[in-house]
Amino acid sequence: MLTNASLLPYNTFGIAAQSKYLTTVTSEDELGSVLADASFQSIDKLLLGGGSNVLFTADFEGLVILNRMGGITLTGQDQDHIYLRVGAGEVWHDFVMYCVENGYAGIENLSLIPGTVGAAPMQNIGAYGVEVKEVIESVEAMSVSEGTKRVFSSSECQFGYRDSIFKRELKGQYMITAVNFRLNKHPNLKLTYGDIEKILDQRPDSERSIRAVSEAVIAIRQSKLPDPAVIGNAGSFFKNPEISNSQFETLKAQYPTLPGYPLPGGAGVKVPAGWLIEQSGWKGYREGSIGVHDKQALVLVHFGGGTGAAIKNLSERIQASVSQKFGIALSPEVNFIG
């Protein structure tokens, strides 16, 4: 157990915040012991994985628990599926590579997303036409207040767009310890989003595989997104907003190059937040140690020596700017801590 511990190594934004207490857990038993410790009953607790989707806007006056609960276990299989239980502390991209190597299909489009397996259901991570909810059977979690374990079925997780019950009604009440996945033995490749198909068109049809899709996604992400090891960031800072069909048509008439992706059942249109931010003049913007990435306006960046509060302030100005120009409200995908 550390006191007044630096959180700089544990968040990809590279913010120099501190936590009053910090400890590491490698098993559910260890997590249970920490939660049962009377010394920490009355203070806030934060289970932190890769720190890739958080922004510390101030020091954390509580206990940060570093999640290092690992392990990948084959729990069953049938004619079409492989079932795996994965510890919440496993690195997400390492798990994706494990599946690609073994021919388990379903998450190859989610390659190179930073963070841990435990964060995947919390955020319902998604990219290139795939959301993780499509392959989640259940989520195992531990009650922060009682230390008891509960298994949430996929439907009980109430997955939404970059959202789940763990970010809403149960926020801060449960810590995810493991995720149970259902992967496919027979790939159904999703190639229509982004430049995946364009990249694969340069290969023989015989090379269209989950490995090829994964490699294409990695190439695309590396070309557009900054490496957190080089420039502090948390990937996409905002969700892509969903607007009504009528609002989209009105905006399309005013801005003919506005991209839009129809939602299932004609429920509206998803608009790229990065396009809105770029058109509002923020792409490549910099003020001192913080700014907006020059290749992808959806990514806010930290060059070092800045504060989370300053980045949050910048994000709020971007939101106001987009709202004023387009009448669209941007919602942060990043979780503010502090």
Automatic annotation (TrEMBL):
Record key words, sorted: Cell cycle, Cell division, Cell shape, Cell wall biogenesis/degradation, Cytoplasm, FAD, Flavoprotein, NADP, Oxidoreductase, Peptidoglycan synthesis
Catalytic activity: UDP-N-acetyl-alpha-D-muramate + NADP(+) = UDP-N-acetyl-3-O-(1-carboxyvinyl)-alpha-D-glucosamine + NADPH + H(+)
EC annotation from Swiss-Prot or TrEMBL: 1.3.1.98
Domain of life: Bacteria
Main location: cytoplasm
One Gene Ontology CC term in the entry: cytosol
Cofactor: FAD
MF (Gene Ontology): FAD binding; UDP-N-acetylmuramate dehydrogenase activity
Enzyme class label: oxidoreductase
Pfam families registered for this protein in UniProt: FAD_binding_4 (PF01565), MurB_C (PF02873)
Pathway(s) of this molecule: Cell wall biogenesis; peptidoglycan biosynthesis
GO biological process, one term: cell division
Family: Belongs to the MurB family.
Name of protein: UDP-N-acetylenolpyruvoylglucosamine reductase
Gene: murB
